[in-house]
Design brief:
There is one protein chain. This protein has eight helices and 13 strands. By secondary structure, the protein is an alpha/beta fold. The chain has a single domain, classed as Rossmann fold (3-Layer(aba) Sandwich), CATH 3.40.50.150. The strands form three sheets. Strands 3, 4, 5, 6, 9, 10, 11, 12 and 13 form a nine-stranded mixed sheet that branches. A two-stranded antiparallel sheet has the order 1-2. It has a two-stranded parallel sheet with strand order 7-8. The longest helix has 13 residues. About 4% of the residues have low confidence.
């Protein structure tokens, strides 16, 4: 059993309907995870897989919104795996939590119950900071969680393509200036791509993109209306506040 550090916090998400224990320092769940969850379309009975789940934030937020999904949380860090498992139990949400490197081969995925064409929905928040422009943390685990390598996106999209059924949906969040990279990786095997830009404020450049795509579809790309975290006055945007509280979704 993995020992947990003493320094953890108990944090409320979705207006208090989801409580997560997470490390006080290092990678912590926040707005990105909740926005990703809110943009992930899932239906009762579907098999949903959260790649790079951390303490389970995004996947468990989907499970809190959609009853009856079959949820798997995939995470490489054994400490976060333990926290994710505890968080699922503490919130009364059924989830299988597996320790797995997203870059592992098909055999490792199959051994973890994630064989080809086994998932209806994959959501993921890969490490996306550009190593050339982002000063990495001396904490190795935090570095892995935040900074992308040259092959990170390719490996994660490839893994999603392998486990998704034909017609299965992928939703991911990435830094806004990496849109071209995301679209390039999705060219093989995905269509019906929809892009949502997330701005910190209406007049400021986008900081994140949320992208949804469907395996095996050929429908053209569409850009949906953007959202901003704050309104022009600097106050929290009412719609995004509702999204973060779990009373509204992001429709892609």
């Amino acid at each position: 059993m993995t020992d947990l550090p003493a320094e953890t916090t108990d944090d409320a998400f979705l207006g208090g309907r989801l409580r997560l224990r997470q490390l006080r320092s290092g990678h912590r769940a926040g707005h990105d995870a909740m926005l990703l969850a809110a943009a992930t379309a899932a239906q009762p009975g579907q098999a949903v897989v959260d790649f790079g789940a951390g303490v389970g934030a995004a996947g468990l937020a989907v499970a809190r919104r959609v009853d009856g999904i079959s949820l798997r949380l995939v995470e490489i860090d054994p400490v976060l795996v333990r926290l994710a498992r505890d968080n699922a139990a503490a919130n009364g949400l059924g989830a299988e939590v597996v320790t797995l490197d997203i870059g592992a081969g098909a055999a490792a995925f199959a051994a973890a119950g994630l064989g080809p064409d086994s998932a209806d929905v994959v959501l993921m928040n890969p490490p996306f900071h550009d190593a050339a422009r982002h000063r990495g943390s001396p904490d190795g685990a935090r570095q892995i969680a935040h900074v992308a390598t040259a092959t990170t996106l390719q490996a994660w999209v490839h893994a999603a393509r392998r486990v998704l059924k034909s017609g299965g949906a992928l939703t991911l969040i990435w830094r806004a200036d990496g849109l071209a990279e995301v679209l390039a990786e999705l060219q093989r095997g995905f269509g019906s791509i929809k892009v949502l830009a997330v701005h910190s404020a209406p007049a400021e450049p986008a900081i994140r993109i949320i992208v949804a795509a469907v395996k095996g579809r050929r429908a053209p790309l569409s850009i949906v209306p953007a959202v901003a975290l704050r309104d022009a006055s600097g106050a929290p945007d009412p719609h995004i506040r509702n999204v973060l509280d779990g009373t509204a979704a992001l429709r892609l």
